[in-house]
Inverse folding.
């Protein structure tokens, strides 16, 4: 569900106004903005209306809240691209795990060549979140 938040940034360049809007924009999913230039004597500046939705952060992991990145995306096209990238990353991880298992096979562990053994041991394990 969309929500709206108005902001006004005066032409005098008050940095606290900019800090406020920047903090807001970093902590919300912005759907769109509407800007209007206000020129009424001493009250000159930019009026901004932000349409946004909150990012749902269900659950916690290791003292941190888990972010549902898919839910934070604004359009179906972005969510579709996210799903495709996630599937691709899972395939890459699967292939990487196969290579890792081959390198750490009993043959590799019994190898007399220290260099190849060190190379096999230097491959880090990876977890996809």
């Amino acid at each position: 569900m969309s929500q709206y938040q108005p902001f006004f940034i005066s032409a005098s360049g008050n940095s606290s106004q900019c800090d406020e809007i920047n903090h807001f924009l970093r902590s919300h999913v912005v759907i769109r903005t509407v800007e209007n230039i206000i020129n009424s004597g001493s009250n000159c500046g930019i009026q901004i209306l932000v349409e946004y939705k909150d990012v749902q952060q269900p659950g916690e992991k290791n003292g941190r809240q888990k972010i549902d990145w898919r839910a934070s995306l604004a359009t179906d096209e972005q969510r579709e691209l996210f799903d495709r990238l996630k599937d691709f990353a899972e395939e890459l991880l699967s292939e990487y795990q196969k290579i890792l298992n081959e390198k750490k096979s009993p043959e590799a562990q019994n190898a007399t060549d220290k260099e190849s053994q060190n190379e096999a041991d230097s491959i880090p394990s990876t977890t996809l979140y």
